[in-house]
Amino acid sequence: MPEPTAASAHVIDLHSHSTASDGEFPAAEVAARAAAGGLAVWALCDHDSIAALPAGAEAAAAHGLRFVPGIELSVHLERREVHLLGHFVDPASKALRGFEDLLAEKRRVRMGEIIQKLAGLGIPLRPEQVERFSGGKTLGRPHVARALVEGGHAATVREAFDRYLGEGRPAYVGRYRLPAEEAIRMVHAAGGTATIAHPGVNRLERGELARLAEAGLDGIEIYHCDHNPSVRGKYLRCAAELGLVPTAGSDYHGPTITPDRTFGSVTMSAAELEALESRRP
Question: Which residues form the Polymerase/histidinol phosphatase N-terminal domain (predicted)?
Fold first, then answer.
């Protein structure tokens, strides 16, 4: 599929983040940037949080965007972490709000453990130095990474992960493990559809996707900034074989955090969006 330019009409992007999780900008600013990038349909999918969805919906309406309320869940398939996108979810879902509160507390405990490990490496960080980068209650490693950059302990967010925060690095702390099948059920219970995010990044194979399809998976995020044409082709074949809907997402976080992921860089067809929406419970 050819890449759209920023001026392209009818661009559909179902994956972006705000300061409610690890994005650079509040939901209103993300909406403005989505509109400037030529989007017609925009989804906000903060990590483990639906807190910014009301603000996102209001801002989308102001910019003439169709808004798709979403969430991105960190889930586990066997022993490894993958990401699951929920689209068309109910922002008032009690199940998602309860899960968000549970995860927020677990993330706060994890953050304290990461700060302790960094202190053991001679890097003093206070919780407030990390929390200032979060616009909500969802704290994650990207917030620590930005604090490390601000403190001169790393040149970039990527370097902070490579040196300290990535899996196997000295300040890494594992997170709460939500089974992928349970996450799919939770998204469906909230009225949404479940899509596996950027499978090429996680190197998911057909057998793993087939297992998720059996558990009720609805789509695969194929048109992603980190997927080259051969990767897209591989997953398009998987989607066709497994009866899953191909989706598109820039995975926009903001230029400081992910400078290579921009609005207008990927899209999907209106027919694919309709097919995904038709799978809502």
Answer: 12-77
Whether the per-residue pLDDT at 153 is higher than 80: the answer is yes
Spatial separation of the C-alpha atoms in residues 153 and 160, rounded to whole Å: 8
Q: Which among 240, 215, 233 has a CA at the least distance from the CA of 77?
A: 215
Q: Which of 231, 241, 238 is nearest to 198 (CA)?
A: 231
180-238 confidence digits (pLDDT tens): 999 999 999 999 999 999 999 999 999 999 999 999 999 999 999 999 999 999 999 99
Query: What is the set of domains in the chain, with CATH numbers?
Result: 11-92+194-277 (3.20.20.140)
pLDDT above 50: residue 1: no
Residue 143 contacts residue 128 (beta carbons within 8 Å): no
The pTM (predicted TM-score) of the whole model is 0.80
Distances (CA, A) of 59 to 33, 35, 64, 91: 11, 10, 9, 15
Report the chain's C-alpha Rg in angstroms. Answer: 18
DSSP per residue, the chain: -PPPPTT-SSEEE--B--TTTT-SS-HHHHHHHHHHTTEEEEEE--BT--TTHHHHHHHHHHTTPEEEEEEEEEEEETTEEEEEEEES--TT-HHHHHHHHHHHHHHHHHHHHHHHHHHHTT----HHHHHTT-SSS---HHHHHHHHHHTTS-SSHHHHIIIIISTTSTT-------BHHHHHHHHHHTT-EEEE--HHHHT--HHHHHHHHHTT--EEEEEETT--HHHHHHHHHHHHHHT-EEEEE--B--TTT-TT--TTS----HHHHHHHHTT--
State yes or no: pLDDT of 113 exceeds 60: yes
